[in-house]
Write a structure and sequence with these properties.
This protein is α+β, with helices and mostly antiparallel strands. The protein has two domains: 87 residues, Roll (PH-domain like), CATH 2.30.29; 222 residues, no CATH class. It is built from 14 helices and ten strands. The strands form two sheets. It has a seven-stranded antiparallel sheet with strand order 4-3-2-1-7-6-5. The chain has a three-stranded mixed sheet with strand order 8-10-9. Strand 6 and strand 7 form a beta hairpin. Helix 2 packs across helix 7 and helix 6 packs across helix 11. It is globular and about 60 Å long. The N and C termini lie far apart (61 Å).
């Protein structure tokens, strides 16, 4: 049996479109482009990662491996669940409703599914192809709106250190555009990414970080969003086909003002669980590719979880846009080896970037 799926090798930022074939002993992953074999996973080493109660397509992983496989085909998921006991959660056990409710639900699900496939898969490939100048204009417009009540920091040495690392990470992922880092004074302890390769940090994050590795980890995670065009995909998905048509046709002059106002833009820029997992994995891979300490992502999560033991993502369940923090810590934990992301002087300059 064969189906469309997505494969992440856990070593690079690249996402492979693959077909999957199963035997009684192994799962074989083929690259669609040339039918080359990317991986052979023994059936006994397969497992399901994630919140299977709330996620339709939780990733399949091989134990002790960073690689992941996301299978979209429900029939293949059911077959895998039947073949491999540890993959049983893939099958799901929804309750059986009455016939009329089931018929209505099935029809509604098909209609919603068709629309979502059009938007979801269309944006997956179309968003990166949108004119980069448009992405920058949109990002800058949103940046102005979101930071209108904040003071921006301009410490030259600190900003240079941040921008240098950001662009090194992006270059390691073969991202063809320049990254622009902004630092806003104050809180919250957070960072976010906007269309057009715009990264925004709050200075409280630098004050709370215990070392440069944590800041580098957060930055690498945000670069993961950039290189996968997550911000642009999020905007296009939120506003659907109408937005896509306007952007492609060039009729976006009135659209920028619409997007950069109210709470709609915040909803559009929220990253889903899949985006967050992709950004985590990509961030770690890029740091390791540059031989930079990659333990900062996990240690930052651990530090935040220590301050707020009640994991908001886990408590929110289906309503959370982020995977449970404990899961993210396990997925990104690395040894504290490798080169420091910043020199002592650069780290001091970053800490004082607003002074």
């Amino acid at each position: 049996m064969a189906t469309m799926a997505r494969y992440y090798d856990g070593e690079t930022a690249q996402v492979h479109d693959v077909s999957v074939r199963t035997t009684t002993n192994e799962l074989v992953i083929f690259r669609l482009a040339d039918a080359g074999i990317l991986a052979r996973w023994p059936i006994g080493e397969l497992a399901v990662l994630g919140d299977v109660q709330h996620e339709v397509t939780p990733p399949i992983v091989r134990k002790n491996s960073e690689a992941r496989l996301v299978v979209e085909d429900p029939e293949l998921r059911r077959q895998l669940a039947a073949l491999v006991p540890q993959l049983a959660p893939l099958a799901g056990t929804p309750p059986t409703p009455a016939r009329r409710i089931a018929a209505f639900g099935a029809t509604f699900a098909v209609l919603v599914g068709l629309f979502w496939v059009a938007v979801d898969y269309g944006t997956e490939y179309a968003a990166p192809l949108l004119p980069y100048s448009l992405q920058v204009k949109l990002g800058e417009s949103v940046f102005d709106e979101l930071t209108t009540d904040k003071d921006e920091c301009h410490g030259k040495a600190g900003m240079k250190a941040l921008n240098d690392l950001a662009n090194r990470l992006a270059k390691a992922a073969d991202y063809p555009h320049e990254i622009a880092v902004h630092v806003m004074e104050g809180g919250p302890v957070n960072a976010f990414t906007l269309p057009g390769g715009i990264l925004v940090f709050y200075s409280d994050l630098f004050e709370q970080a215990k070392d440069g590795a944590q800041v580098a980890g957060v930055m690498a995670h945000e670069i993961g969003h950039v290189v996968h065009y997550h911000p642009m995909k999020g905007v296009v998905r939120q506003y659907g086909i109408e937005l896509l048509v306007k952007l492609v046709s060039g009729g976006y002059s009135d659209l920028l003002g619409t997007l950069a106002s109210g709470g709609n833009v915040l909803l559009a820029l929220r990253n889903g669980r899949a985006f967050e997992r992709d950004a985590d994995a990509t961030g770690v891979a890029l740091l390791e590719k540059l031989e930079i300490r990659a333990d900062g992502i996990a240690s930052f999560f651990e530090q935040m979880l220590a301050k707020e033991p009640k994991d908001a993502a886990a408590v929110a369940g289906i309503w959370s846009s982020h995977p449970p923090t404990a899961e993210r810590i396990d997925a990104t934990r690395r040894p504290s080896t490798g080169k420091p992301a910043f020199t002592d002087a650069e780290w001091k300059a970053i800490r004082n970037v607003c002074k």
